[in-house]
Amino acid sequence: MTNQDISHYTNTFRVTRPHRIVRNRPTVSCSTCRARKSKCDRQQPCGACQKRGHEDTCHFEPALKQQLASSSVGGNQNGIRIELRQMQHVLEGLLNQSGQTQTQTQPIKAGSQLEIPCHQLMESINRIQHLLEDDGRPRVLNTALDEQDLPDLVLASFSKATIRDIIEALPSRQVSDRTISAYFNAKHLTVPFIHTHQFRRQYETFWGDPAAANLLWVSILFSVLATGAVVLGAKAACISDPHHHSAYVTMSARCLVAGQYQKATEFSVEALVMHVHSRSFQRSNKDGDMSQLHAFALRLAQRRCYHQEVDRLLLTITPFEAEMRRRVWYVIQYYDVILSLEQGLPPLIHEDTFSTCHPTNITDDDFDEDVICLTPRPTEEAQSMLHCVYISHLLPILRRIIRHALGFKTCTYSDAMLLKAELESWYASISPCLRIRAIKDTSFTDPNHTVMQRIMLELMYTMGTVLLYRPFLDLMQLSNPECQMALNVCRRLAVRSVGVYVEVDHEIQEGGRLYEDQPIASGLSVNDFLITTIVAPLEFFDCPNLPPGEEDHIINLLQTATQLWSKRLVASTHVRESTRLLRLIAAKAQTASQGRRHVPYPVPGSSTGAEAETEQYGHLALQQYPSGEEGYAESDIDFEVGLIGWSNDVEIDWNPANFCLDFETVNQAMSRNPLLDTQ
């Protein structure tokens, strides 16, 4: 065959296809008519579908080629975004190498010898990224998925809130202003990531056009109203009141659902964490619900990189936004520890899984959205943010103590002492302005929220110490000095914590210093009291040798606390369980005291009686005050100064600790003992 014979076959076997003109014509037939290859009259529904009774399946969908074209455009946009991120990384590297500040620039010479500052290039890249995100192109392939809402397993019981529902649920502007003002004035009930001045501007914008507001921000507004309602309406509020705390919490959840908080958009983390905070005042809620909400908030925060410090992110974040992110992460850590203690579960956050720094000791009046540099305040000033900074430094220590107390890994006494050293170092770092002191000895110029912050810091320290020693009470014999130390410390701190609660209750009565702030004082978390009451049965069951000279005070204190908590049985299940335990403990202690034969208490040296006891106890000794009418000594505890004077000569049977957890058996024991009758 000659070349002339095969010349007309050369184009047939080429690898490349011949160029063809592709015309993406608009769809003119419904999907049913295209499948049947019948004529369509282009109505909705068309005549052919009406005749066959297929009106529901008559849809006009774009052609496959248009879908493929849209997907290819999306792929190109993803490639452009990757290139922009690489350019952004290179520019930030140049800025870091030059060592210049944000206002200084690094010139880049182009072919035209035009110098363009690096920060202007960064702004241009950010603008291009925003244009790519909001280019307005139709996303054909994702339309069905976007319109279909995924099931909400956390807030499934709440329906979506509409604009009409929001307007109807809101109080009047005057009532709303007063409620929000009450929230921000209750300093230790506020969350630090709600900036006062920024929220004020957003609040004014909302009232100007409520329909245009972000639904997630509206959820934050209802959570703020819910917490403010606790402060204002705890004395006379009615559950049926439409402006009651629970009504605001419900609207907060409905706005979360309507705003699609699961998508991790703007305000999603803040709105969900604020909802958890406002919901924490409803003690009737199940802890499981709170735990699920918190776990979801933690994952949302991680998706938005709240667990990473700003300098490690390729994002343009202002110093104001960076500080707000730190404060959000702090609140998430705080509730992680609190919920872990309530449920006896390990914390979700670990030290090696985040790099976010501690919040800055700075008030809302010291910085705003236009701030360039954050200047911390001195720690000698007792302002609202200082106690958050101290708690933020305590949380990593508490997480390790909780894991130690749960006993997942074998922890020796020396390991516990290392944790104790860290806890003591933190306690020693607390500024004198936030040191615990008797409320009656507090300066008249100190605000009440500062008093409550001092108490909370002391109770969290006490809780950590008790948890640290708790595992050794079951594993060791009383002949072991380490067990004696653990038992003595837990006894003393348990009594001291009960005394703190008794004094707070005394001060919130009519005529007391905290009477006007009853909602604030009653908002003390019961977690610390729960921890001390868990340890308390081990301190007094079958232990007839209470410290000489203090047995009457201890029994009186326990009975007072029993009566105190008996009045609050409707508050929560924790209060009911604590009341049950206190009744049994007080009865056992009084029974042991009545049958005790006093034995001289040996102390070293020539001192005798109360002087010797005070000398050995040091500043740890409790002052003798009846029923919480007096104060307690300022705590500066040093556990290494010998053993505290509790007699451990008698072998203790630890079984009653488990016995007290059996509610039926406890009820029988209380019914047989006349000392347990509610007064």
What is the secondary structure topology, with strand pairs?
Layout: H1 3-6, H2 31-36, H3 47-52, H4 64-98, E1 108-109, E2 115-116, H5 118-133, H6 143-147, H7 163-169, H8 173-185, H9 196-208, H10 215-233, H11 245-258, H12 268-279, H13 287-303, H14 319-343, H15 386-406, H16 413-428, H17 448-469, H18 472-475, H19 481-507, H20 518-521, H21 527-540, H22 551-566, H23 573-594, H24 609-617, H25 655-659, H26 663-672
Antiparallel strand pairs: 1-2
Describe the structure.
By secondary structure, the chain is an all-alpha fold. The protein folds into four domains: 22-61, CD2-Gal4; 66-143, no CATH class; 163-366, no CATH class; 494-597 and 610-676, no CATH class. The protein is 53% helix and 1% strand. It contains 26 helices and two strands. It has helices at residues 3-6, 31-36, 47-52, 64-98, 118-133, 143-147, 163-169, 173-185, 196-208, 215-233, 245-258, 268-279, 287-303, 319-343, 386-406, 413-428, 448-469, 472-475, 481-507, 518-521, 527-540, 551-566, 573-594, 609-617, 655-659, 663-672; strands spanning 108-109, 115-116. The protein has a two-stranded antiparallel ribbon. Helix 12 packs antiparallel against helix 13. The longest helix has 35 residues, at 64-98. The chain is elongated and about 105 Å long. The termini are far apart.
